[in-house]
Amino acid sequence: MSHSSISDVLAGKYPVESIITVKGWIRTVRANPNFSFINLHDGSCFDPIQIVADKNLSNYAEIMKLTTSCSLSVTGKIVESQGKGQSFEIQADSIEIIGLVEDPDTYPMAPKRHSVEYLREHAHLRPRTNLIGAVTRVRNTLAQAIHRFFNEDGFQWIATPIITASDCEGAGEMFRVSTLDSVNPPLTDEGKTDFSQDFFGKEAFLTVSGQLNVETYCCALSKVYTFGPTFRAENSNTSRHLAEFWMVEPEIAFADLATVAQCAEDMLKYVFKAVLNERKDDLEFFDQRVQKGLIQRLETLSETSFVRMDYTDAIEILKNCGKKFEFPVEWGVDLSSEHERYLAEEHVGGPVILQNYPKEIKSFYMRMNDDNKTVAAMDVLAPGIGEIIGGSQREDRLDILDARMIESGLNPEDYYWYRDLRRYGSVPHGGFGLGFERLVSYVTGVANVRDVIAFPRAAKSANF
Amino acid sequence: MSHSSISDVLAGKYPVESIITVKGWIRTVRANPNFSFINLHDGSCFDPIQIVADKNLSNYAEIMKLTTSCSLSVTGKIVESQGKGQSFEIQADSIEIIGLVEDPDTYPMAPKRHSVEYLREHAHLRPRTNLIGAVTRVRNTLAQAIHRFFNEDGFQWIATPIITASDCEGAGEMFRVSTLDSVNPPLTDEGKTDFSQDFFGKEAFLTVSGQLNVETYCCALSKVYTFGPTFRAENSNTSRHLAEFWMVEPEIAFADLATVAQCAEDMLKYVFKAVLNERKDDLEFFDQRVQKGLIQRLETLSETSFVRMDYTDAIEILKNCGKKFEFPVEWGVDLSSEHERYLAEEHVGGPVILQNYPKEIKSFYMRMNDDNKTVAAMDVLAPGIGEIIGGSQREDRLDILDARMIESGLNPEDYYWYRDLRRYGSVPHGGFGLGFERLVSYVTGVANVRDVIAFPRAAKSANF
Predict the structure, then answer these.
(1) Confidence (pLDDT) at A237
(2) Is the alpha carbon torsion for B298, B302, B307, B310 positive or negative?
(3) CATH number, residue B152
(4) What average pLDDT does this structure show over A44-68?
(5) What is the dihedral of CA A361, A214, A410, A185, to 10 degrees?
(6) Is B75 in the same domain as B141?
(7) Which of A238, A454, B79, B113 is most buried, taking the most CB atoms under 10 A from its CB?
(8) Are residues B301 and B369 in the same domain?
């Protein structure tokens, strides 16, 4: 059953005149009584390969009836292509028809332009389209590059838990995980659900972040990262939110905020370069059909130094820029997308790393600065999207951490294991979080994150 | 804040006499009034590096009080080690004490032998031990090698959904995911839970496998794989089961069972070789302290051809081998671990790929063989563990698939999207599943899968 990938054939891996076999699905077909042109696709690259079939083939009558998405095995000779575009095509010696398409007239992926909404409803068939095929390959390239970047730099991948019983991170936005009877759950004497009888012996949820867990490994192995699914039960029906999405969360020991920011910049540039090197074919499609100038933007980003700016300076810039914003700006406010994009797109004209935010708008675990007003937090803002990464140095001083927990309404005892890291050989450390689907969306220009994950999960939507 | 990893220093990356800085935690310390020896560890490799501190250091009085797990930054000169074992050590010019250990006498990870049960109760601190540190690095190496193996071979990584509303895969063993009120859920007129009011608008669960989903991408991109968490709400308190574990599931189009089996063999050998090449230090620890002969076993496995054997032949072998088994053997039974291990360890003396199992003991989606009694399924059995991989060619013929679903008590309409793959350009395809924790357990010799994942989840256990 050995056969060649279309990617290898188009890349010239085999000499002209070689006899090879390729297997795939028909993208388009032009049939006439003397010879037919079949564009065959196997997902290994953006382009299909052209198959020339002539009437001498024993099953030519059946070949003339083929339609989009029929599956074939084609054996033939590689020849240089006469037409424009591709370098090579295949003159078929034999074509085995593997699978037909039942009722081609109603086939949901007929070769025409479909809306992204229509494609989402057919998420099991949409990888057969140019758009979703290209997204899938770029997504894969980005994921591989992320693992490679961290591995080459001595980071260890850690699988932090998906199911967590730490209900202290804001249970309102979390999904409960249970095996209790949903109609008649066991109750305690106080009439509450008796989770002691549940599978885990207590109430359990899906994780919203692996950060606190991965810090425990950071404080033993120095450089670690997570890359796994995280969950938010938020009812936000936007193009930037999913109920289930993948996060990358590196954590570095003996690191200050500057080290964390540099790691974020280096990682983004590394993965931009990887996708430019490895998936130029798919990027050209996105550049032509989805977002003009995309390749140029990625090339620029992968070479430009990211500007560092303090939050406090950014506020001054926004207040004095003369631009009218929907949300007014003042020291202490959380920046909106319009502010972030102004800074990156108009003021700097490139990526910016904003640093040292007011403690009131950031999480309890971020390290307090000496001014006692700001914390060592950072956001990476990129032109065309705004915030793409958020991170911080973590509070490594137990007394200050405890005070911040209490200020935030948390009970330090619930975090005894997180506090232990500060009791036993505490070190300065920090890290960041990257929403992987937002990265894929940014790199492909595909606006809605529901179109860059195989089977998107959102409010009222968990099909397939 | 730039410093060197201990791994690089011990590997001889820096010339002798170089002045460098290393940062890490104390493993052990021997202090006396004239000079002290500190073993400093940063997780970058198995071994700590020896620091020699003499009394001329300005803070020598404090250095003499240091204990296990205190964190330090040490700047000094690389010198050749006089003692046995390591090649290099560091003569400290200065030692900065970063973090102390609060009450060393009660520090839970004091330098002595702890039971694995005790370590599990301190899962946030156990990565500081030799055992869990080594497991973590080997686990990382295996994960990276798996991604590399598939990526180099043209596979695309697909993130199949974690939350699924397909309740047809055997809901009894699945975790429900919900945001409904757990005490008073909304009810339908029939008194059942009204999941139409739940977050996803229907009852949702945690996935038990990404296979059916990933087949949709296989039938468009030819070579794909998943690597993500999966869940079983089984109350089995064994050393081989977790409620949350990671699975690797490749799926190959235009492939028969032989192709799938070869892929499984190639992948295992690739990852065994990777860990032998990259983590010899940790493997030597496991070989000495956990399972004698482990390195030899991995070396042999990575070179040996895996024997193929039909289930039917295996049954004959087991019936006639003269050995008394706890569970009797007869054609049609599912093999137990004792049978699998006899075949691999005693009969073959190496890994075996068992093929073509009775349809009654296998899943509906496995391809029916021409004998109408067996399906094109395979299990990889390895010495010392038994089944490590299970896979099959998938049923690509719609009529037979439908018949098998009905036989298995399933409603084909619930699987309309899975059936569509057989209606529109169906192709022979197949794949396998590898439980990642079982692989890590096998490679390290660490018997209980709870000790090869950071924070294990099992019945009555979801701490941290």
Answers:
(1) 83
(2) positive
(3) 3.30.930.10
(4) 97
(5) 120
(6) no
(7) A454
(8) yes
* Inside any domain, residue B220: no
Option in A43, A147, A228 nearest B229 (CB): A228
C-beta atoms of A99 and B200 within 8 A: no
A to B CB pairs, distance under 8 Å: 329
Contacts of B24 in chain A (CB under 8 A): 222
The DSSP annotation for A105-173 comes to GG-TT-SS---HHHHHHTTTTGGGSHHHHHHHHHHHHHHHHHHHHHHHTT-EE----SEE--GGGTGGG
CA atoms within 13 A on the CB side of B276: 16
pLDDT digits (tens, 9 = 90+) for B117-168: 999 999 999 999 999 999 999 999 999 999 999 999 999 999 999 999 875 5
CATH assignment of the domain containing B93: 2.40.50.140
Number of domain units in chain A: 2
> Is residue A146 located within the same domain as residue A80?
no
Domain that holds residue B38: 6-99
Minimal-distance CA residue of chain B relative to A455: B161
Residue B246 lies in a domain: no
- Which 421-440 residues of chain B touch chain A by CB within 8 A? 421, 423-428
Of A136, A460, A464, the CB nearest to B221: A136
Q: Is A156–B137 a contact, with Cβ atoms under 8 angstroms apart? A: yes
By percentage, how much of chain B surpasses pLDDT 90? Answer: 93
Say if A411 falls within a structural domain: yes
Same domain, A16 and A149: no
Q: What is the mean pLDDT of residues A370-394?
A: 96
Number of residues that this document lists for chain A: 464
B128/A220 touch (CB, cutoff 8 Å), yes or no: yes
Residues A386 and A434 grouped into a single domain? yes
* Count of CB atoms situated within 10 Å of the CB of A32: 9
ipTM: 0.97
The pLDDT confidence band at residue B171, using thresholds 50, 70 and 90, is: very low
Which range (B84-93, B323-332, B423-432, B435-444) has the least confidence?
B84-93
Residue A166 has pLDDT above 90, yes or no: no
Q: Say yes or no to pLDDT of B394 above 70.
A: yes
Asked if A213 is an interface residue toward chain B (Cβ–Cβ < 8 A), one would say yes
